[in-house]
Amino acid sequence: MKEGYFHLDRYYPDVSDVTFATEFMSFSADEVRALRSARFAFKQQSTGSSSAMMERRRDGAPSNFTLHVGTSGLDRQGIPKNSFLLKDNEMDSSSPLVDPIITALRAMTTSCDSKVGAVLMSLTERIQSVMRMMDPENINGVFVKLSLRSFKDLMELCQGKPVTSREELIAQHDRLCMHDAESVVACLVASERVYQDLRWASETPEARMPVLCIRKWSAGLDPSCEFRLFVINGQPTACSQYHKSCPLPHCKSLEQLTSLKDRILAFWKAHLATQVHIP
Prior knowledge:
By secondary structure, this protein is an alpha+beta fold. It is built from 10 helices and 8 strands.
């Protein structure tokens, strides 16, 4: 079985008629290096740990790369005019994901002779062009993830505590709706999951580099209804609710659970059993 098939862009053609419309973007080698360098710079400044500094140096982050962080706003002191920074009238993100860690990252900048800021600006522009194509009026927003995993670890960080109710889960989920590319790049930098996936692909010869997936946002989607169906040799063997801490209100009886199981298996048989081709 090839690991590469489990990247969304690989199996998307098999399921495109039953999932959300998606566009894919590959990262250049410079973009991967810039994202990893920015991650280490942010980690060093936010934690001040010696281990973060060692990791940053090992990953090749330029010594003059800095993040300007302000607790009650964005610290503009010393930021060059060509920095990766929002204009004054763009300080409030149109995305629901606004948190001190993200605010700090949106103030990310490099010194004039550093390449990282220019690369991140270029990446932002590329992402924005795809977002405009997916949602021309910027009304609905988009959901952005890597081809293996999303940056939903940031949602848990913003929440500050485990989600224990369906209402909290829906609120957390809605933060993933992106309306601007700056927020997307900030999330890519801040996410530990994104860092892990990029690092693994960069340092493992047989691994496949993830791509960026930009998907149409579906308003009203209930994340508590997300399930995992486990299939072995083409046969479903088990199924579990992904967010087990948020019980479904309409599945309290054995009869209701059986009905749900039958619906999931019927969907598998009708739309996926013959379409999904695992190498």
